Amino acid sequence: PLILGIESSCDDTAAAVLRGREILSNVVLGQTDLHAAFGGVVPEIAARAHAEKVDIGVEQALAEAGVPLSAIDAIAVTAGPGLIGGVLAGVMCAKGLAAATGKPLIGVNHLAGHALTPRLTDDVPFPYLLLLVSGGHCQFLLVRGPEAFTRLGGTIDDAPGEAFDKTARLLALPQPGGPQVERCARAGDPGRFRLPRPLLDRPGCDMSFSGLKTALLRTRDAVIAEKGGLTERDRADLCAGFQAAVTDILAEKSRRAIALYDAERPAIRTLAVAGGVAANGPIRAALQTLCAGTETHFVAPPLALCTDNAAMIAYAGGERLRLGHRDGMTLAARPRWPLDDRAPALLGSGK
Ligand code: ATP
Ligand code: FE
């Protein structure tokens, strides 16, 4: 079937058309310029921009796909979690299109979109282990089906994407910080500043990134106090030290998540990553190496499908459609929408 996907939960207005797993178009209208002066995403500005651009995005996606709206079989839209004004703009647009065409409307959880992306790009059977690392989230999930997720553990404070963005801000690099920190770190020495790796010695898959952020701030201030400012070299070394710490945390906790399932469910042979931080080269490389050493199949979607996009929403919507799911005009925009908040019995063992 032909699915139109719409995404507007953060600072990218996106629309895409998919035929099965074939991406006919994948339009992302970013808002980086609008938020640049504020050092982060301003919800009010984002909501207004989504309301202005969502129709344009949809038209562009249909045009690039060469498909008239009347040929679309279903309309999938991010219904949460995210900045509520933006989510509303997308949901309103999708409802309008569904009402006008009489085609089914399908609300999609943004995180499910990220979490199912490995199946859009690769032949990954259920169940698989997923590390979801994005701007607002960080968790290990067992993905059992398009609507079945079991959380194994995750961050107890900040998400790594947030930490990357904060690091960029502390070092006067532009937003979004992830790609900037990665680029800056290339010239850096990860060994010069040894930043902490919180919770690394604790059992389980939980992670913490807020201490790392604070340590980076202190280290930066110590350098400034000593030398009166930061050189390019200092910046590169700080970025490299920070990125190495995040990479070590994610790799070590991934090793534990894999080990957990090796013992308990030998059927699971794949670790996939998704979310904006999964676009990071050194993090991908570390997970690839880890998986090679544990005979685990590693799947990392292409960069453009890791960060926010509507192809993942169209794909997840298609999977829900296949399961018979339909939403009506009562579909609500949800600022919060956990994928799964049940504590799995499996983790009761305290591993
Ligand atoms: P969520 O999906 O949790 O609601 P979001 O939609 O804002 O949050 P994504 O678009 O999935 O997040 O990811 C954006 C985050 O990914 C930002 O914090 C950004 O800095 C980070 N990011 C993007 N590219 C990279 C990279 N190359 N290295 C590290 N982080 C990156
Ligand atoms: Fe996202």
TrEMBL record:
Q: Which cofactor does it need?
A: Fe(2+)
- Is Transferase found in the keyword set? yes
Q: Where are the transmembrane segments?
A: none
Q: Which reaction does it catalyse?
A: L-threonylcarbamoyladenylate + adenosine(37) in tRNA = N(6)-L-threonylcarbamoyladenosine(37) in tRNA + AMP + H(+)
Example GO biological process term?
tRNA threonylcarbamoyladenosine modification
> PANTHER family from the entry?
TRNA N6-ADENOSINE THREONYLCARBAMOYLTRANSFERASE (PTHR11735), TRNA N6-ADENOSINE THREONYLCARBAMOYLTRANSFERASE, MITOCHONDRIAL (PTHR11735:SF6)
Full protein name: tRNA N6-adenosine threonylcarbamoyltransferase
Query: Organism, per UniProt?
Result: Roseisalinus antarcticus
